[in-house]
Amino acid sequence: MIPKALPLQEKNILPQSLFLLLFLFIPHIAQSQNNAISKYGGQLVLASTSDPKSFNDILAKETSSTMVTEQIFEGLTRTNVFTLKVEPHLAQSWEISPDGREWIFHLRQDVVWSDGVSFSADDVVFTFNDLIYNSDIPSSARDIFSIEGQNFTVSKIDDYTVKFTLPVKFAPFLRGMSQAILPQHKLKKAVAEGKFNFTWGIDTDPKEIIGTGPYQLAQYRPGERLVFRRNPRYWKKSTEGEQLPYIEKIIYLIVQNADTALLKFMDGELDYYGLRGIDYPLLKPLEQKANFTVYETGPAFGSNFIAFNQNTGVNPKTQKSFVHSQKLKWFTNVNFRRAVAHAIDKNKIIDILMNGLGYPQDSSMSPSAGFFYNPNVAKYDYDLKKAKAILTQSGFVDHNGDGILEDQDGNSVEFNLYTNSGANERMQIAAIIRHDLQRLGMRVNYLPLEFNSLVGKLTATYDWDAIILGLTGGVEPHFGKNVWSSDGQLHMWFPQQKIPATSWEKQIDEIFNQGVQELNEDKRKKLYDEFQVIVSQQLPLIYTVLDSSIFAVRNKFGNLKPSSYGGAFHNLEEVYLQSQYR
Description:
This protein is α+β, with helices and mostly antiparallel strands. Helices cover 27% and strands 19% of the residues. The longest helix is centred in the last third of the chain and has 18 residues, at 521-538. The chain is globular. It starts with 33 loop residues before the first helix and ends in a 5-residue tail after the last strand.
């Protein structure tokens, strides 16, 4: 799972997340295929409220970066967004041993990197052995592809055959093979020289970033735009044998916030807009007149939550605690967190901010996850009296009558609350929660930050008190292991753990280690149901509301097949602009 920047099309499966016209005529397409040729060209214009932090898929932990890398890189498999079944991708077939521990993948032999070099087994072995399993590289994928500290053994059989040997059975293995594969010939030297962590940063010449995906990064202007061009060497073809992709250019405009994106969509500058609930009554009546369609696909897969910093570590540079010791006592007190949970008016947030188009979230998984979603978790009704009583029982009382609670040591309860400044809805959620926490007697200093700066605090400096943020979601619980494992890369409330700090975190570690090895789906569900109950009781992340997945798309695209899981452009390589719009 990865932190969300802008909910455009959050199809991310693994860790875990937002032009000049040029026609390329493919030589092997016969001139008689006028209908096929007529599909090529044009551009798709999207928006992001944040610049990317990196163009390196292995290092990317936020959707502002993965919205770039998902256009460029691909995995051995992918998930069908309608059936949710795993399908071949860079691998055309596979075999599995009777004990479920040995997998042999037969790679496609018609794939080349965008620089013309052949894709091979060497790239797969390199991605896992030299990148994901490299302890010097901070990869969230390593959390996913290890079981009780044991890695997979990945070896080359021949140029187009790779063998994975697993230490134990690994239930979501095939779905996990959607992990992006990176080119050995471009990155091997950087790894050998210990420079990989600084490779393919946002200052990289786009021509240096090589992938097998349908698009290549062509231009990046910070604070302005990202431009992708069609990869003329892309391997995939349509069912009619046409070279894909069809659309020549993809442009992401980097905008200040969602309100700016809305205005640009209404002005016709954007082809897509992810609606907030408050936008629905404005845009829905304009569908026919403005020639776009609003799609509603159910609860979003992602989340919005508030978390408190429980990091007991010490900054090695300053030798000071990341969190003041007194605040740490509050944040590690589960009753403090439960009181906060009772102070979140989810219905008000949904009614006022989402125009009724949202869902209260209590579980760590979305109802859209289907089979593995557990609705029977601990729930916290909005009740300030109950919250106040819990705080009083825990020693938080306004002793001097100034309206601010003091703890048992006489310290006033005051902390900083951060969220990302580009997400207006999340900022408003923060304002509502802050208001009710202040009614409880807490002094909350609200500090919105630019998204990448916020992610830096969360994953690098650890200098924060409380944060409102979101994560992408999915249908497979194990792919949240980088968040829930006590030593996970995104174990955000205590990111420096090497061993569980609490008994319940140890229990979650055990559940994830058991669940990934259990091949019986019903038994797996019981384990992950238990995990969701523990999270709801211990509240390391205090959930707020789920957005409805609603988006507007201009009526100028062919082959558009929106879905709840994949969003509007999950099949982007197959989408084309109708002739009158090119």
